[in-house]
Amino acid sequence: MSDVGVDESLLKSVATQVATDAAELVREAWEGMARGRSVAVDTKSADTDVVTAVDHESERLVRDRLAALRPGEPVLGEEGGGTAGDGVTWVVDPIDGTVNFLYGLPWFAVSVAAQVGGESVAGAVVEPVSGRVWSAARGQGAFLDDRRLTVSAPSRLELTLVGTGFAYSAERRTRQSRFAAQLLGRVRDIRRNGAASLDLCAVAAGWLDAYAEHGLHRWDWAAGALIAAEAGAQVLLPGSAPDLGTDATYAAAPSIADPLRKVLADCGAAEV
């Protein structure tokens, strides 16, 4: 699909504006919860897979803002669904890290990305609590607020800090725990922070040297993977790395990307 005429800078500006507006709504709700306000909670794929009324409110706000700013362009959202269309499609995670949000942990974000032909061309990830804004446009670099991002450069695997995450299915979590146990002895350490978009941004900033997770949906990685790639990370999206598993997402600093990929495969990533 041709994307001639797409203005990545404009799309980045829209993504940032809309994600920032939604993040303000989410922040106010989070602060209200800290003061004792109750929030309606439901479940999706499992009892541990939660969705709150704030997730729905945030996505409605994003959809309303996009309808005003980019009328006629389809939206694919975690809560409201949708399908991709010709031209630009917006991919939205209204709260990435809902469990963290619900528990009061400040590591969660609103993620908004513009895709063309299934590929991200612009995106923003905004943290409601800290106010940090992560953003990127294709070919234009990645930024944390106004600071340009560059990935880390670990010299060997033993000094590599790796982020990951776990599925809601207890059966799959058991397989993931075996995989993580195999990996743990071959890298510096493993981090599990609970928000895929922010883990990908952490790779972009050099806060993590690499990140690998199975079972992510498009809205989990659409903005964060672009930010990581624009900061110089080697990024593999679901379906592109069968040696890591058909639904694996992988982002890593180039200095260790290939040897770490082999180690992940050796540790049984494809069987997770």
Description:
The structure is a single chain. The protein has 272 residues and is α+β, with helices and mostly antiparallel strands. It contains 7 helices and 14 strands. The strands form 3 sheets. It has a 7-stranded mixed sheet with strand order 3-4-5-6-7-8-9. It has a 5-stranded mixed sheet with strand order 11-10-12-14-13, sandwiched between helices. Helix 1 packs antiparallel against helix 2. The longest helix is centred in the N-terminal third of the chain and has 27 residues. It is globular. The protein starts with 7 loop residues before the first helix and ends in a 6-residue tail after the last helix. The mean pLDDT is 95.
Short description:
By secondary structure, the chain is an alpha+beta fold. 37% of the residues lie in helices and 23% in strands. This is Inositol-1-monophosphatase.
List the SSEs and their pairings.
Blueprint: H1 8-34, E1 41-43, E2 50-52, H2 53-69, E3 75-77, E4 88-96, H3 98-103, E5 109-116, E6 119-126, E7 133-137, E8 142-144, E9 147-148, E10 161-163, H4 170-184, E11 189-191, H5 196-205, E12 210-214, H6 218-230, E13 234-236, E14 248-252, H7 254-266
Parallel strand pairs: 3-4, 10-11, 10-12
Antiparallel strand pairs: 1-2, 4-5, 5-6, 6-7, 7-8, 8-9, 12-14, 13-14
Helix pairs in contact: 1-2, 5-6
